Amino acid sequence: MFATLARRLTVLPLMLLGMTLITFVITHLIPADPARVAAGLNASSEQVERMREQMGLNKPLLAQYVDYLTDLLRGDWGASAVSQRPVLPDIAVALPATLELLVVVTLGFLVLGLPVGILIGSSRSKLVSALLSFLSYLGMAFPVFWLGLMLQIVFYRDLQWLPAVGRVGAQVQAPATVTGFYILDSLITGNWDALGSSLRHIVMPAACLVLARFAVTARFVAGGVQEALGSDYVRTGKAKGLSRFSILYKHALRNVLIPVNTMLGLQFGWLLGGSILIEAVFSWPGIGWYAWRSIVSLDFLPIMGVTLVFSTAFILINLVTDLLYQVLDPRISAGGSA
Question: Does residue 138 register a pLDDT over 80?
Answer without folding.
Answer: no
